[in-house]
Design goal:
Length: 210
């Protein structure tokens, strides 16, 4: 089943209110963070292409590469598939990322069908593509498909935020963090938004670094 879809700020606010009602620490965190962001993006090839471009580089560098890809009209699956390695390298993509974007372009993903697939199926399909890991697939489900109940437990900022908010001895490992997050169903995507927002507040206050 697809489950609840987040479509507006009102959905996020509803989820935040629910989380605050079941977990006092979330209520405390919301006082510090204020309203949580919607952060919805378009789905489809461009969204995943952008995710690959952004992997392991700065926001500024990713933005520069993306501008070059747009200028070269290399943001569609058809154009990326037919582009030469030199074309893609000229836009700033590294050799591994050229392979990843080519793999994505040639994967034949039915993006419309993903909108109707269960979150588990979405993630399972996407991680079969070279260059798309679980975190990227979860973020796609969360922000491009608007799934209300998906969680990126491998995200270091989420782990650090949970460590601080719940006064844990260490960042929770991914498996344990997923188990912890089960209590936040059916609004785990909003819990993620809250923890990311709380991480930024805590980082500013305490000078936290990853």
């Amino acid at each position: 089943m697809v489950g609840r879809i987040i479509t507006s700020d009102a959905c996020v606010a509803e989820g935040a209110a629910y989380l605050a009602s079941i977990e006092p620490r979330f209520a405390d965190a919301l006082v510090l963070t204020g309203d949580l962001p919607l952060r919805l993006k378009s789905d489809g090839f461009e969204a995943l292409l952008g995710a690959i471009v952004s992997q392991q580089i700065s926001v500024a560098a990713a933005g520069s590469i993306w501008k070059r890809l747009c200028a070269a009209e290399l943001t569609s699956s058809v154009n990326v598939s037919s582009a030469s390695e030199d074309d893609l390298r000229g836009c700033g993509l590294s050799r591994p990322k050229i392979k990843y974007v080519k793999s994505l372009a040639d994967a034949g993903v039915d993006y419309a069908a993903l909108r109707e697939a269960s979150t588990q199926d979405v993630i399972a399909q996407l991680i079969e593509i070279k260059g798309i890991g679980r975190w990227t697939a979860e973020i796609y489900a969360m922000f491009s498909l608007g799934r209300a109940d998906v969680f990126a437990a491998g995200d270091l900022a989420l782990q650090e935020a949970a460590k601080i908010l719940f006064e844990l001895d260490a960042r929770p490992p991914e498996k344990a963090f997923n188990e912890m997050a089960e209590a936040w169903t059916p609004w785990r995507s909003v819990a993620a938004r809250l923890l990311w927002a709380y991480y930024r507040v805590a980082k500013d206050r305490e000078g936290i670094g990853l």
